[in-house]
Automatic annotation (TrEMBL):
<dbReference type="GO" id="GO:0008168">
    <property type="term" value="F:methyltransferase activity"/>
</dbReference>
<keyword id="KW-0489">Methyltransferase</keyword>
<dbReference type="Pfam" id="PF13489">
    <property type="entry name" value="Methyltransf_23"/>
</dbReference>
<dbReference type="InterPro" id="IPR050602">
    <property type="entry name" value="Malonyl-ACP_OMT"/>
</dbReference>
<protein>
    <submittedName>
        <fullName>Methyltransferase</fullName>
    </submittedName>
</protein>
<dbReference type="GO" id="GO:0032259">
    <property type="term" value="P:methylation"/>
</dbReference>
<keyword id="KW-0808">Transferase</keyword>
<dbReference type="InterPro" id="IPR029063">
    <property type="entry name" value="SAM-dependent_MTases_sf"/>
</dbReference>
<dbReference type="GO" id="GO:0032981">
    <property type="term" value="P:mitochondrial respiratory chain complex I assembly"/>
</dbReference>
């Protein structure tokens, strides 16, 4: 019997460096973007209140805005929130068992997503709940269009493959969760130019960490990308970019 080999789609080193850069920008840059984390966190709080869950121990990753940590501190819960760059969901979680595990936009860049979900489930106490959110399929259409224009006839891999909602339920079942719930909703953000979008992605650890991504854009390719992005502007000169938030919820 041979061991199952997980394809290396994402570079763990690049992921760690990306997360370190995002943490630095959150701490040092004036008014860094963390709106996606805030939107996810507020949604998670609504879900927790809806099921009337009162966790005593919580594992939390990706809370860039600090919204969830402040919420749980107000309830008196014990929160384990490791630094962004130290979180590796492809390894067992330390400090369990937890009544609740929350992952905000972390699972979209792991090579072994089923394994990461199993680790999250194993870290839960019986009856514990997991909420995992990520940027799902159909996201960033304006950026994808701009990158295709930049590369021309020979498009390079630049953006992450994304999980579709129809496959997420199967992933939860495979990981052993019960009472699986999968849903998605979209958020549209309007940008003045490509540079502002890229800055937002860097602030929020959303840039690509592909193991075999495309080469850096040349100056000419970057100009093509900027032009293609700006060509999608509305009457006010803003470009609408779409982020589809996929939420996976399961219980142990």
């Amino acid at each position: 019997m041979t061991d199952h080999q997980v394809p290396e789609i994402f570079s763990r080193q690049r992921r760690r460096l990306r997360d370190q850069r995002a943490s630095y920008r959150q701490a040092r840059v004036s008014d860094p973007a963390n709106w996606l984390s805030r939107v996810m966190a507020e949604d998670a709080i609504e879900r927790i209140d809806f099921v009337r869950l009162e966790p005593k121990r919580v594992w939390l990753a990706g809370d860039l805005s600090g919204t969830l940590e402040r919420y749980f501190n107000s309830t008196g819960a014990d929160v384990v929130a490791p630094p962004l760059a130290s979180v590796d969901e492809e390894l067992p979680l330390d400090g369990g068992p937890f009544d609740l595990a929350i992952s905000l936009d972390r699972l979209g860049s792991v090579n072994d997503l089923p394994g990461a979900l199993i680790h999250l489930r194993n870290a839960l106490a019986p009856g514990g709940m997991m909420i995992a959110m990520m940027v799902g399929g159909g996201s960033l259409p304006a950026l994808r269009s701009a990158m295709l224009a930049a590369d021309g006839d020979r498009p390079a891999p630049r953006l992450h493959p994304q999980v579709e909602s129809r496959s997420a339920t199967g992933l939860l079942e495979r990981a052993g969760f019960s009472r699986q719930v999968v849903d998605e909703h979209g958020v549209t953000v309007r940008y003045p130019d490509l540079g502002k979008l890229v800055s937002d992605l860097r602030d929020q650890a959303l840039t690509a960490v592909l193991a075999r991504g495309g080469p850096a854009l040349s100056k000419a390719a970057l100009k093509r990308a900027e032009a293609a992005f700006s060509a999608q502007a509305d009457d006010e000169g803003r470009i609408a970019e779409r982020f589809e938030i996929l939420t996976l919820t399961g219980w142990r």
